[in-house]
Write the structure tokens for this entry.
Amino acid sequence: MSLEQTQMEGRLAESYRRQAAIYAHALALADELFANWHGVNDVVGALQPIGALVDEIRQSNRAIEKQRQEWVATAQRAGPHLAAALQDCANMILGLKDRIGDLERLAAERKQSLAPQLDSFARGWQMQRAYSAAKR
């Protein structure tokens, strides 16, 4: 591997290590949300910091896309530093994906448990409007 390829791989490895750290932060926030789910009233607000971190990763990916394509074009196997960084990143992605799946299940359960209450509220509101109209 040439010096230029080694340097390119080093820059990619560093970028992926930074991304893995951001994914780890997002996973920690998702784990915290999962652990405190029953005390969370504003789910959308609680998810915003996680979304912001994912956007940060998206921007990072765009910034290194040209380098990544150039490295892929060399058809070299990843060296140990890049391979480790990619594996760490993959592990964080899978962990976050699983935790987000858990949160989606909890949100669906919450929605399902609220449906009868909301339905009852809507029926009561309709009846109240009907009685008001009948009194006139």
In short: The mean pLDDT is 87. The two ends are 88 Å apart (CA to CA).
